[in-house]
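Notes on consecutive records. When two proteins share a document, each keeps its own sequence and its own C-alpha coordinate line. Never mix them. Below: protein one.
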Amino acid sequence: MYQELNVRIGSDTHKVFMQDGFFNKRLLTSKIHRHNYAEVHFLLGGDVVYRIGEEIYRAKNGSMLVIPAGVFHAGVERDENAHQAAFQIDCEVSEFGVYMLGSAVLAEFFSEIDRCISTEDYTGISAYITLFCRHFLAVEPVRSEHISDPGFLIFEFFSNKYSEDIRLGDLAASLHLSERQTERLVIDYMGAGFRETLTSTRVNMAKQLLAVSDMSLGEIASYVGYRTYAGFWKAMKKHGLTLPSDERRENEGD
Protein backbone atom coordinates (compact mmCIF):
# COMPACT_ATOMS: atom_id res chain seq x y z
CA MET A 1 0.00 0.00 0.00
CA TYR A 2 1.58 3.26 -1.16
CA GLN A 3 0.18 6.71 -0.53
CA GLU A 4 1.49 10.24 -0.96
CA LEU A 5 0.24 13.27 0.96
CA ASN A 6 0.92 16.96 0.59
CA VAL A 7 1.06 18.58 4.03
CA ARG A 8 1.49 22.27 4.77
CA ILE A 9 3.87 23.05 7.61
CA GLY A 10 4.39 26.73 8.24
CA SER A 11 4.67 28.44 4.86
CA ASP A 12 5.98 25.34 3.04
CA THR A 13 4.27 22.31 1.52
CA HIS A 14 6.01 18.94 1.87
CA LYS A 15 5.42 15.57 0.24
CA VAL A 16 4.95 12.68 2.65
CA PHE A 17 5.47 9.14 1.34
CA MET A 18 3.71 6.31 3.18
CA GLN A 19 4.56 2.69 2.36
CA ASP A 20 3.92 -0.68 3.99
CA GLY A 21 6.09 0.39 6.91
CA PHE A 22 3.48 3.03 7.70
CA PHE A 23 0.33 0.93 7.44
CA ASN A 24 1.68 -2.46 8.62
CA LYS A 25 2.57 -1.54 12.18
CA ARG A 26 4.61 -4.71 12.90
CA LEU A 27 7.55 -4.21 10.49
CA LEU A 28 10.04 -3.45 13.25
CA THR A 29 13.18 -5.23 11.99
CA SER A 30 14.80 -4.69 8.61
CA LYS A 31 17.98 -5.13 6.65
CA ILE A 32 20.33 -2.19 6.61
CA HIS A 33 19.19 0.36 4.04
CA ARG A 34 18.89 4.10 3.34
CA HIS A 35 16.42 6.43 1.65
CA ASN A 36 16.50 9.38 -0.69
CA TYR A 37 14.34 11.35 1.78
CA ALA A 38 14.34 11.81 5.54
CA GLU A 39 12.45 9.03 7.35
CA VAL A 40 10.35 9.49 10.48
CA HIS A 41 9.66 6.52 12.80
CA PHE A 42 7.04 6.32 15.56
CA LEU A 43 7.27 3.71 18.30
CA LEU A 44 4.41 2.59 20.55
CA GLY A 45 4.15 -0.13 23.18
CA GLY A 46 7.75 -1.27 23.64
CA ASP A 47 11.44 -0.73 22.86
CA VAL A 48 13.19 -1.29 19.53
CA VAL A 49 16.94 -1.37 18.89
CA TYR A 50 18.09 0.46 15.76
CA ARG A 51 21.39 0.76 13.98
CA ILE A 52 21.72 4.40 12.89
CA GLY A 53 24.88 4.85 10.83
CA GLU A 54 27.61 3.28 12.94
CA GLU A 55 25.72 3.65 16.25
CA ILE A 56 23.27 1.40 18.10
CA TYR A 57 20.27 3.17 19.60
CA ARG A 58 17.43 1.80 21.75
CA ALA A 59 14.20 3.67 21.01
CA LYS A 60 11.64 3.94 23.80
CA ASN A 61 7.86 3.65 23.84
CA GLY A 62 6.23 6.94 22.78
CA SER A 63 9.19 8.23 20.80
CA MET A 64 9.67 9.68 17.31
CA LEU A 65 12.96 9.10 15.47
CA VAL A 66 14.01 11.32 12.57
CA ILE A 67 16.67 9.83 10.27
CA PRO A 68 18.28 12.12 7.65
CA ALA A 69 18.26 11.21 3.98
CA GLY A 70 21.17 8.97 2.92
CA VAL A 71 21.91 7.66 6.43
CA PHE A 72 22.20 3.86 6.62
CA HIS A 73 19.93 2.35 9.25
CA ALA A 74 18.13 -0.84 10.27
CA GLY A 75 15.80 -2.19 12.94
CA VAL A 76 17.83 -4.96 14.58
CA GLU A 77 15.85 -6.00 17.66
CA ARG A 78 12.24 -5.48 18.72
CA ASP A 79 9.96 -5.90 21.69
CA GLU A 80 7.07 -8.27 20.92
CA ASN A 81 4.61 -5.67 22.19
CA ALA A 82 6.01 -2.81 20.12
CA HIS A 83 4.28 -1.21 17.16
CA GLN A 84 5.90 1.07 14.65
CA ALA A 85 4.88 3.37 11.81
CA ALA A 86 7.23 5.22 9.47
CA PHE A 87 7.03 7.61 6.55
CA GLN A 88 9.44 9.61 4.42
CA ILE A 89 9.24 13.37 3.89
CA ASP A 90 10.93 15.67 1.37
CA CYS A 91 12.57 18.09 3.79
CA GLU A 92 16.06 18.97 4.92
CA VAL A 93 17.12 17.13 8.09
CA SER A 94 20.77 17.57 9.02
CA GLU A 95 21.16 15.05 11.85
CA PHE A 96 19.52 12.13 13.60
CA GLY A 97 17.01 13.24 16.23
CA VAL A 98 14.79 11.66 18.87
CA TYR A 99 11.65 13.31 20.26
CA MET A 100 9.38 12.02 23.01
CA LEU A 101 5.75 12.45 21.95
CA GLY A 102 4.20 10.22 24.61
CA SER A 103 2.30 6.96 24.32
CA ALA A 104 -1.15 8.55 24.63
CA VAL A 105 -0.83 10.80 21.59
CA LEU A 106 0.81 8.03 19.56
CA ALA A 107 -2.00 5.62 20.48
CA GLU A 108 -4.42 8.14 18.98
CA PHE A 109 -2.20 8.47 15.91
CA PHE A 110 -2.09 4.70 15.38
CA SER A 111 -5.87 4.52 15.74
CA GLU A 112 -6.15 7.22 13.08
CA ILE A 113 -3.96 5.10 10.80
CA ASP A 114 -6.41 2.21 11.18
CA ARG A 115 -9.33 4.54 10.52
CA CYS A 116 -7.87 6.01 7.34
CA ILE A 117 -7.19 2.52 5.95
CA SER A 118 -10.91 1.73 6.09
CA THR A 119 -12.24 5.18 5.14
CA GLU A 120 -9.47 6.45 2.82
CA ASP A 121 -9.87 9.79 4.59
CA TYR A 122 -6.41 11.17 5.37
CA THR A 123 -7.53 14.40 7.00
CA GLY A 124 -6.67 13.26 10.53
CA ILE A 125 -3.36 11.70 9.46
CA SER A 126 -2.36 14.93 7.75
CA ALA A 127 -3.13 16.92 10.91
CA TYR A 128 -1.02 14.61 13.09
CA ILE A 129 1.90 14.63 10.63
CA THR A 130 1.81 18.42 10.49
CA LEU A 131 1.90 18.59 14.30
CA PHE A 132 4.71 16.05 14.67
CA CYS A 133 6.93 17.51 11.96
CA ARG A 134 6.99 20.88 13.67
CA HIS A 135 9.29 19.25 16.23
CA PHE A 136 12.16 18.99 13.77
CA LEU A 137 11.40 21.39 10.92
CA ALA A 138 12.46 25.01 11.15
CA VAL A 139 9.15 26.87 11.05
CA GLU A 140 8.82 30.62 11.19
CA PRO A 141 7.05 31.61 14.43
CA VAL A 142 3.48 32.80 14.03
CA ARG A 143 2.92 36.30 15.35
CA SER A 144 -0.48 37.62 16.30
CA GLU A 145 -1.78 41.05 15.40
CA HIS A 146 -4.12 43.35 17.26
CA ILE A 147 -7.69 42.75 16.11
CA SER A 148 -8.49 45.31 13.45
CA ASP A 149 -11.69 43.91 11.87
CA PRO A 150 -14.25 46.64 12.67
CA GLY A 151 -17.20 44.29 12.18
CA PHE A 152 -15.85 41.91 14.81
CA LEU A 153 -14.99 44.71 17.24
CA ILE A 154 -18.37 46.44 16.88
CA PHE A 155 -20.38 43.26 17.38
CA GLU A 156 -18.30 42.27 20.42
CA PHE A 157 -18.68 45.76 21.90
CA PHE A 158 -22.48 45.51 21.91
CA SER A 159 -22.47 41.83 22.89
CA ASN A 160 -20.27 42.39 25.94
CA LYS A 161 -21.27 45.89 27.09
CA TYR A 162 -25.02 46.14 26.39
CA SER A 163 -25.83 46.19 30.11
CA GLU A 164 -23.54 49.17 30.78
CA ASP A 165 -24.21 52.88 30.33
CA ILE A 166 -22.38 53.04 27.00
CA ARG A 167 -22.35 55.79 24.41
CA LEU A 168 -21.20 56.24 20.85
CA GLY A 169 -18.06 57.95 22.12
CA ASP A 170 -17.05 54.84 24.05
CA LEU A 171 -17.15 52.72 20.91
CA ALA A 172 -15.41 55.44 18.89
CA ALA A 173 -12.59 55.55 21.46
CA SER A 174 -12.12 51.78 21.31
CA LEU A 175 -11.91 51.92 17.50
CA HIS A 176 -9.70 55.05 17.52
CA LEU A 177 -12.14 56.78 15.17
CA SER A 178 -14.33 59.86 15.25
CA GLU A 179 -17.96 59.47 16.33
CA ARG A 180 -19.14 60.24 12.80
CA GLN A 181 -16.93 57.49 11.31
CA THR A 182 -18.01 55.10 14.03
CA GLU A 183 -21.72 55.74 13.46
CA ARG A 184 -21.26 54.99 9.75
CA LEU A 185 -19.48 51.74 10.53
CA VAL A 186 -22.19 50.67 12.99
CA ILE A 187 -24.82 51.24 10.30
CA ASP A 188 -22.73 49.34 7.74
CA TYR A 189 -22.09 46.31 9.94
CA MET A 190 -25.16 46.21 12.20
CA GLY A 191 -27.82 47.60 9.86
CA ALA A 192 -28.82 50.41 12.22
CA GLY A 193 -27.27 53.29 14.15
CA PHE A 194 -25.67 53.10 17.58
CA ARG A 195 -28.76 53.80 19.71
CA GLU A 196 -31.03 51.47 17.76
CA THR A 197 -28.41 48.72 17.78
CA LEU A 198 -27.98 49.05 21.53
CA THR A 199 -31.73 48.93 22.08
CA SER A 200 -32.24 45.90 19.85
CA THR A 201 -29.34 44.11 21.57
CA ARG A 202 -30.90 44.72 24.98
CA VAL A 203 -34.35 43.66 23.75
CA ASN A 204 -32.99 40.42 22.29
CA MET A 205 -31.23 39.62 25.56
CA ALA A 206 -34.43 40.37 27.48
CA LYS A 207 -36.40 38.04 25.18
CA GLN A 208 -33.91 35.28 25.93
CA LEU A 209 -34.25 35.82 29.67
CA LEU A 210 -38.04 35.87 29.43
CA ALA A 211 -37.89 32.48 27.71
CA VAL A 212 -35.38 30.68 29.89
CA SER A 213 -35.27 32.33 33.32
CA ASP A 214 -37.63 32.96 36.23
CA MET A 215 -36.29 36.47 36.80
CA SER A 216 -38.86 39.18 37.47
CA LEU A 217 -39.43 41.85 34.83
CA GLY A 218 -37.68 44.40 37.02
CA GLU A 219 -34.66 42.13 37.37
CA ILE A 220 -34.54 41.57 33.63
CA ALA A 221 -34.78 45.31 32.96
CA SER A 222 -31.83 45.96 35.26
CA TYR A 223 -29.86 43.00 33.90
CA VAL A 224 -30.00 44.24 30.30
CA GLY A 225 -29.04 47.79 31.22
CA TYR A 226 -32.20 49.83 31.87
CA ARG A 227 -32.15 52.18 34.83
CA THR A 228 -35.96 52.39 34.94
CA TYR A 229 -38.67 49.88 34.24
CA ALA A 230 -40.47 52.52 32.16
CA GLY A 231 -37.57 52.71 29.71
CA PHE A 232 -37.50 48.95 29.47
CA TRP A 233 -41.25 48.73 28.87
CA LYS A 234 -41.04 51.42 26.17
CA ALA A 235 -38.23 49.64 24.33
CA MET A 236 -39.99 46.28 24.41
CA LYS A 237 -43.24 47.82 23.19
CA LYS A 238 -41.40 49.59 20.36
CA HIS A 239 -40.15 46.21 19.19
CA GLY A 240 -43.67 44.76 19.22
CA LEU A 241 -43.37 42.76 22.44
CA THR A 242 -46.07 42.66 25.09
CA LEU A 243 -44.70 42.08 28.57
CA PRO A 244 -46.53 39.73 30.92
CA SER A 245 -47.04 40.89 34.48
CA ASP A 246 -44.74 39.47 37.13
CA GLU A 247 -47.77 37.71 38.63
CA ARG A 248 -48.44 35.97 35.32
CA ARG A 249 -44.78 34.92 35.02
CA GLU A 250 -44.92 33.42 38.50
CA ASN A 251 -48.05 31.47 37.57
CA GLU A 252 -46.44 30.26 34.33
CA GLY A 253 -43.51 29.01 36.36
CA ASP A 254 -45.77 26.92 38.61
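Protein two starts on the next line and is unrelated to protein one.
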Amino acid sequence: MAEKDQASQDITRALVNRELAWPDLLKLMRQPKSPERFDETVKTFQERVAWKEPIVLPLGENLFVVNKRGRAIIKTTAGAELGKWNENWKMKCRIIVRRTRADLEKIYPPEHLTIDTQLVELREFYCPQSGTLLDVDCVPPCYPVEIDFTPDLAAFYRDWLGRPLPVTL
Protein backbone atom coordinates (compact mmCIF):
# COMPACT_ATOMS: atom_id res chain seq x y z
CA MET A 1 0.00 0.00 0.00
CA ALA A 2 1.35 3.41 -0.92
CA GLU A 3 2.22 5.84 1.87
CA LYS A 4 -0.70 8.15 1.00
CA ASP A 5 -3.13 5.21 0.94
CA GLN A 6 -1.84 4.00 4.32
CA ALA A 7 -2.23 7.48 5.80
CA SER A 8 -5.82 7.65 4.53
CA GLN A 9 -6.56 4.18 6.00
CA ASP A 10 -5.03 5.27 9.33
CA ILE A 11 -7.29 8.35 9.41
CA THR A 12 -10.35 6.22 8.66
CA ARG A 13 -9.35 3.70 11.33
CA ALA A 14 -8.99 6.53 13.87
CA LEU A 15 -12.37 7.92 12.77
CA VAL A 16 -14.14 4.57 13.20
CA ASN A 17 -12.41 3.96 16.53
CA ARG A 18 -13.33 7.46 17.78
CA GLU A 19 -9.69 8.38 18.22
CA LEU A 20 -9.57 11.58 16.15
CA ALA A 21 -9.03 14.80 18.07
CA TRP A 22 -11.77 17.38 17.52
CA PRO A 23 -9.62 19.70 15.34
CA ASP A 24 -8.70 16.75 13.09
CA LEU A 25 -12.31 15.60 12.91
CA LEU A 26 -13.48 19.12 12.04
CA LYS A 27 -10.84 19.36 9.30
CA LEU A 28 -11.96 16.00 7.92
CA MET A 29 -15.63 17.06 7.89
CA ARG A 30 -14.78 20.20 5.92
CA GLN A 31 -12.77 18.40 3.26
CA PRO A 32 -14.31 16.87 0.13
CA LYS A 33 -15.42 13.31 0.82
CA SER A 34 -12.84 10.70 -0.06
CA PRO A 35 -14.01 8.18 -2.67
CA GLU A 36 -12.01 5.54 -0.80
CA ARG A 37 -13.63 6.21 2.59
CA PHE A 38 -16.35 3.54 2.24
CA ASP A 39 -13.87 0.77 1.44
CA GLU A 40 -11.53 1.98 4.18
CA THR A 41 -14.41 1.99 6.67
CA VAL A 42 -15.49 -1.51 5.70
CA LYS A 43 -11.88 -2.70 5.99
CA THR A 44 -11.60 -1.19 9.46
CA PHE A 45 -14.81 -2.83 10.66
CA GLN A 46 -13.77 -6.13 9.06
CA GLU A 47 -10.51 -6.03 11.07
CA ARG A 48 -12.53 -5.63 14.29
CA VAL A 49 -14.76 -8.69 13.89
CA ALA A 50 -13.84 -12.33 14.46
CA TRP A 51 -16.06 -13.74 11.72
CA LYS A 52 -14.99 -14.03 8.09
CA GLU A 53 -18.11 -13.11 6.06
CA PRO A 54 -17.39 -9.93 4.07
CA ILE A 55 -19.18 -6.79 5.20
CA VAL A 56 -21.42 -5.40 2.47
CA LEU A 57 -22.68 -2.35 4.40
CA PRO A 58 -22.16 -1.15 7.97
CA LEU A 59 -25.52 -0.25 9.54
CA GLY A 60 -23.98 0.98 12.79
CA GLU A 61 -20.99 0.45 15.03
CA ASN A 62 -22.04 -3.10 15.87
CA LEU A 63 -24.48 -4.03 13.10
CA PHE A 64 -23.72 -4.99 9.50
CA VAL A 65 -25.14 -6.34 6.28
CA VAL A 66 -22.79 -9.19 5.37
CA ASN A 67 -22.33 -11.61 2.51
CA LYS A 68 -22.97 -15.11 3.81
CA ARG A 69 -22.55 -17.61 1.00
CA GLY A 70 -23.84 -15.12 -1.57
CA ARG A 71 -26.84 -13.96 0.49
CA ALA A 72 -27.20 -10.68 2.37
CA ILE A 73 -27.91 -11.07 6.08
CA ILE A 74 -27.73 -8.86 9.19
CA LYS A 75 -24.96 -9.73 11.64
CA THR A 76 -23.67 -8.17 14.85
CA THR A 77 -20.05 -7.59 15.83
CA ALA A 78 -20.34 -10.57 18.17
CA GLY A 79 -21.49 -12.80 15.31
CA ALA A 80 -25.21 -13.08 16.04
CA GLU A 81 -27.15 -13.51 12.81
CA LEU A 82 -30.39 -11.52 12.91
CA GLY A 83 -32.04 -12.56 9.65
CA LYS A 84 -32.16 -11.44 6.05
CA TRP A 85 -30.97 -7.92 5.19
CA ASN A 86 -34.53 -6.69 4.59
CA GLU A 87 -36.19 -8.26 7.66
CA ASN A 88 -36.77 -6.52 10.97
CA TRP A 89 -33.57 -7.54 12.76
CA LYS A 90 -34.87 -6.08 16.04
CA MET A 91 -37.26 -9.02 16.37
CA LYS A 92 -34.27 -11.32 17.00
CA CYS A 93 -32.73 -9.17 19.75
CA ARG A 94 -33.00 -9.18 23.49
CA ILE A 95 -35.22 -6.26 24.42
CA ILE A 96 -35.57 -4.20 27.56
CA VAL A 97 -38.70 -2.05 27.67
CA ARG A 98 -38.65 0.84 30.13
CA ARG A 99 -42.25 1.80 30.91
CA THR A 100 -42.19 3.24 34.39
CA ARG A 101 -40.50 6.19 36.01
CA ALA A 102 -38.49 3.76 38.18
CA ASP A 103 -37.27 1.95 35.03
CA LEU A 104 -36.23 5.24 33.43
CA GLU A 105 -34.49 6.51 36.57
CA LYS A 106 -32.05 3.60 36.15
CA ILE A 107 -30.62 5.41 33.11
CA TYR A 108 -31.65 9.07 33.59
CA PRO A 109 -31.02 11.24 36.66
CA PRO A 110 -34.47 12.03 38.17
CA GLU A 111 -33.92 15.79 37.91
CA HIS A 112 -33.47 15.45 34.10
CA LEU A 113 -36.26 12.97 33.49
CA THR A 114 -38.92 14.63 31.35
CA ILE A 115 -40.42 11.57 29.65
CA ASP A 116 -44.13 11.05 30.26
CA THR A 117 -44.48 7.30 30.76
CA GLN A 118 -48.17 7.49 29.87
CA LEU A 119 -47.20 8.66 26.37
CA VAL A 120 -43.96 6.83 25.54
CA GLU A 121 -41.75 3.91 26.45
CA LEU A 122 -38.10 3.22 25.70
CA ARG A 123 -37.18 -0.02 23.97
CA GLU A 124 -33.54 -1.07 24.09
CA PHE A 125 -32.40 -3.67 21.57
CA TYR A 126 -29.39 -5.79 22.58
CA CYS A 127 -27.25 -8.31 20.70
CA PRO A 128 -28.48 -11.77 21.76
CA GLN A 129 -24.88 -13.02 21.95
CA SER A 130 -22.88 -10.25 23.58
CA GLY A 131 -25.49 -8.02 25.20
CA THR A 132 -24.18 -4.98 23.28
CA LEU A 133 -26.74 -2.21 22.86
CA LEU A 134 -27.64 -1.96 19.16
CA ASP A 135 -30.48 0.56 19.08
CA VAL A 136 -33.06 2.41 21.20
CA ASP A 137 -36.58 3.40 20.18
CA CYS A 138 -38.78 5.89 22.00
CA VAL A 139 -42.34 5.04 20.98
CA PRO A 140 -45.93 5.08 22.27
CA PRO A 141 -46.87 2.03 24.36
CA CYS A 142 -48.07 -0.92 22.21
CA TYR A 143 -46.56 0.63 19.07
CA PRO A 144 -45.19 -2.01 16.65
CA VAL A 145 -41.45 -2.65 16.60
CA GLU A 146 -40.09 -0.12 14.11
CA ILE A 147 -37.83 -0.83 11.16
CA ASP A 148 -35.41 2.11 11.08
CA PHE A 149 -34.75 1.78 7.37
CA THR A 150 -34.14 -0.83 4.72
CA PRO A 151 -31.14 0.14 2.64
CA ASP A 152 -31.38 -0.05 -1.14
CA LEU A 153 -28.25 -2.14 -1.49
CA ALA A 154 -28.45 -2.48 -5.26
CA ALA A 155 -28.80 1.28 -5.81
CA PHE A 156 -26.05 2.06 -3.31
CA TYR A 157 -23.56 -0.21 -5.03
CA ARG A 158 -24.66 0.69 -8.58
CA ASP A 159 -25.25 4.45 -8.23
CA TRP A 160 -22.90 5.48 -5.43
CA LEU A 161 -20.03 3.02 -5.64
CA GLY A 162 -20.27 2.26 -9.37
CA ARG A 163 -19.80 -1.48 -8.99
CA PRO A 164 -21.91 -4.63 -8.87
CA LEU A 165 -23.58 -5.72 -5.65
CA PRO A 166 -21.55 -8.60 -4.18
CA VAL A 167 -24.62 -10.52 -2.93
CA THR A 168 -27.91 -11.89 -4.21
CA LEU A 169 -31.01 -10.16 -2.92
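For the record: The chain has a mean pLDDT of 93.
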